[in-house]
Amino acid sequence: MGLINVRLDEDHFTLKKGIRAKDVLRQVAYEDSDDIVAVKVNKHIRELDYCLLEDCVLEPINLRQKDGQRIYIRSLVFVLIRACRDLFPGIRVSVEHSFAGGLYCELHGDITLTPRLVDRIEDRMREIIKADEPFEKVDTPIKEANEIFKLMGFDDKIDILKYRPEDTISLYKCGPMTDYLYGYMVPSTAYLKSFGLKFYLPGLVLRYPSRENPKELAPFIDSPKLFTVFRRSEKFAKIIKIENVADLNQRIERGEGGDIIRICEAQHEKQLAFIADQIADQRDRIRLVLIAGPSSSGKTTFAQRLRVQMIINGLNPVPISMDNYYLDRVDIPLDERGEKDLESIDALDLELFNEQMTKLIQGRSVEIPHYNFSTGKKEYLGQKIKVNQDQPIIVEGIHGLNEKLTEMIPRENKYEIYISALTQLNIDNHNRIPTTDTRLIRRMVRDYHFRGTPIEKTLEMWPSVRRGEEKYIFPYQEAADVMFNSALVYELAVLKPYILSLLESYPLDNKYFNEVNRLRKFLQYFIDLKPDDIPNTSLLREFIGGSGFSSHGILKKDDMLS
């Protein structure tokens, strides 16, 4: 059969041609093989059952890696859907969104979910996992896949396959169920050692291990305000009858793209008006409006649109940039990697910020600093400001909800807003679009087209950005007075032509190819939507260009560092 040379870490092995990747790991007694769920063969992700037919470099993928966690979760979702179908024939499972360290899912049909039924589903999942049933991968022609999905009752998958550019699809079979979950799977159910289900009205949360500690489930951190925002977005999607990509595509094909844009933009405007009304109704006490949210959530445009709405209500808000209050570069603390941690709240001159905000609220004049990101020092350029009672101060930045930022100012004088792009649109019932993917695509488009930043640089920075969000933003989101979902149902159809050419030309041997390829594949399902009908006040204009807003003095750290 012949021999091949396999490099694994610093070791080289001569093995039989055709050996499966998992057998290589077993044969060489690879350390921590229990946590490995896939491999990279010459930098490309492959399943553990993949046969090695040529000399290669083999890299194990474990649960501490994002790709490994995705594969684990995807396989768990398959088992959840199958367990539900085993117990309750005819019901439909929808995977809605990430929530509380897991995935929030719902069951639809002739069923009322209860804690006892959730326990039954979990017991059935454990039976399937204990049986060590294989996930069998079968390359299937689209026509045959449609027949299989019809038999399974997966009509939503039949609808989306119309937009698949390839003639075949890789389906997975486990026991009596065949499905497609848009990515790689573990070899068999026995790999899914750790999981849990939690009843969360009206659905359940599928819990899985954290990347930090793969042997333990991620902690369940309830976020009722965030959940309410997701539910509101789900209700809106049902109202406009766009719950998945196929629904959106069909509306665009019928020439209704402009209408969708106008409806979604009107919904945003209505929410902004509501927030501005709340602030106006409490104008006697609210002196500081704090806006926080993760990267590429649209904070800058949101702040400008909120300012306009506040002016309509008789207020004259003054924007102040948090980025001007950075410590001098030599004093900025280091992160665990020994690099300057610009995401840390301790990178800000908190004493100066609190002192100046306190003085402004008391009607005194202060000279606002200007941070020179080239020299890494604060400068004073004579920008003195003073605010009146009808001039709330708008502060936008990632630490807006952290009380440490404004600890000298009473809580009653603050109004806190959390904004994020909480994508509700799914590919189909079993395949969601992560909110982080929408934000990453927004940022890649903006940084490449308007800041000259290659997508590779954005991808390189993204893990650090995400760590900062997990540490400095998400723990405080429930403290907000109000949450705003900046996601737009139509936006990925608009963003697709801006980004797809960059993704399609990405080199195969680059270390970010697997991530780029993952984004490219799911974007191919969208029909392009021209941006002609998008108003210049839209949050999306912050990323595709054509915004009608100037900075109004708000300087962005990302603008200086890109």
Estimated share of beta-strand residues: 15-25%
Helix content: 25-40%
Cα distance, first to last residue? Answer: 52 Å
Q: Give the CATH class of the largest domain.
A: Alpha Beta
Structural class: alpha+beta
User: DSSP helix count?
Assistant: 16
* CATH homologous superfamily (4th level) name of the largest domain: P-loop containing nucleotide triphosphate hydrolases
Stated plainly, the CATH topology of the largest domain is called: Rossmann fold
Radius of gyration: 25 Å
Number of domains: 3
CATH architecture of the largest domain: 3-Layer(aba) Sandwich
Any low-confidence stretches, pLDDT <50, length ≥5?
551-556, 558-562
- Give average pLDDT, whole number: 93
Strands of the largest sheet, in order across it?
Answer: 2-1-5-3-4
Biggest sheet, open or closed, and with what strands and sense? 5 strands, mixed
Overall geometry: globular
State the oligomer.
single chain
Q: Please tally the β strands and state the result.
A: 23
